[in-house]
Structure formats: C-alpha cells, structure tokens
Amino acid sequence: MQTDIFKELFPLFDAASAETLEWLLAEAVERDYPSGRAVLMEDAWGNAVYFILSGWLKVRFLRSQDATTLAILGNGDFFGEMAILDESPRSTDVVAFTPVRVLSIPAQKFIQFLFKDPQLHHRMLQLMVRRLRKTNQRTQLRQQVPAVRIATVLTGLADAYGNKNESGIDIFNIPVQDIADLSEVSPEDTTKVLDKLKEKGWIVVDPKRQVMSIANEKQMSQLATFR
C-alpha cells in the first residue's frame, strides 16, 4: 500500500515520514475475513495491531457463555494496541459484521515504530485519551432516557465511520442486540425506539443492503445532545 493512501485512511500517521511509513508497511500483511468470522480471538491479543481498511466489526466482552458488545469499529480505525502496551490478557474478541479487510502489523514492529517517531507516540496518547473520554461519556449516558442513549450511539457511529450522501449518512445496519448493548437499553426498548425513529423518518433501514441511513441528521443530533 502506498504511504499517501495509508495516511489518508489513518490520520494517526499524518506526521510520520514517508521513509518510516515504508519501513512499517513492509512488515504489514493484508488479511480478509468473511462476515461472522472472529478476526481476533481473546487469546490472540497482543500479537499485532490491526488497521481496518474496509468493513465493520464489533468488540465483544466474553463471560462464560455470554457476550456483550463493547464497541463497533469501521474503516479507518484500528485495534489491538492496548494489549501490546500493557501486555495483559484479554477477555474480549473482535468479530466481523461484514466482509472485512485489515492490515496487521506485528506487535514488536509496531512498538519499534513508536520509538522511532516521538510525534506518533504523542498522537497515540491523544487517541487513547479520546477513547477514554468516550467511555466516560457512555457512563454519563446511563442517566439519560433510552431514546437519547440510542441516538447518541447511532450519531457517534455516523460521525466516525458514516458515508455521507444525498439521502443522509449511511452506516451498517447494526443488529438490535448490539445497539442495546452499546446504549445499555433493553432489546425490547431498543426496538421500540428504533421503530419510532423509522416512523418519524429520522432513520431509514435497507435490510437487503445491510444499511441504516441517518436520514435526518439535524434531528438525530439534537436528540443525541438533549440533556
């Protein structure tokens, strides 16, 4: 992959030199996964960092026979870096919602890359702080009504990974249970809220294409910021 294309996909590397990026990409391997496949098992955390070139995935917390969705990731994002930095075991895995293509970089090579580029070190810390803030915001959302929680989840995904077009902002048509997990709303109440949003025309779902469109971005954003 060309370094300029990689930078465009992953702003984390904006400040990295072409030479350093070429060294890193020479160690990277592109991998394809079908929908439903585990991209990263719980016992494989810490082996590599994965950069999402295309597709949608979910990060799940595993406990006994139960799995709870913790996050949904799309193209331009990455995962696996935390396990490398703290070297602790994980009770989570990453599963593909759709066909996915990722670029994997071995853990030790990525660590060497961090030491080579102090600016990247700083950018990585900034991103980790941003993710921590999102976790804190999710905790604060527990005080809000279900509609606000769900609107916040959907608009957040649209902002991060959505494809904007004339009909709205397209995201993957996330299953009800996963939206329920992310918003910490029961599946029954999640279904009711989604049905209401469809009735209002604020979201439009195309099951055949597996697409949910945020058709009324303004109203959804206002609902998400309602306090």
From TrEMBL:
Coiled coil: none annotated. It comes from the Bacteria. One of its GO terms (molecular function) is DNA-binding transcription factor activity. InterPro entries: cNMP-bd_dom (IPR000595), cNMP-bd_dom_sf (IPR018490), Env_Response_Regulators (IPR050397), HTH_CRP (IPR012318), RmlC-like_jellyroll (IPR014710), WH-like_DNA-bd_sf (IPR036388), WH_DNA-bd_sf (IPR036390). Pfam families: cNMP_binding, HTH_Crp_2. GO terms for cellular component: cytosol. The keyword Nucleus does not apply. The keyword Transcription regulation applies. Residues 12-131 form the Cyclic nucleotide-binding domain. Keywords: DNA-binding, Transcription, Transcription regulation. Gene3D superfamilies: Jelly Rolls, Winged helix-like DNA-binding domain superfamily/Winged helix DNA-binding domain. Residues 144-218 form the HTH crp-type domain. This is Crp/Fnr family transcriptional regulator. It comes from Pseudanabaena catenata USMAC16. The lineage of its organism: Bacteria, Bacillati, Cyanobacteriota, Cyanophyceae, Pseudanabaenales.
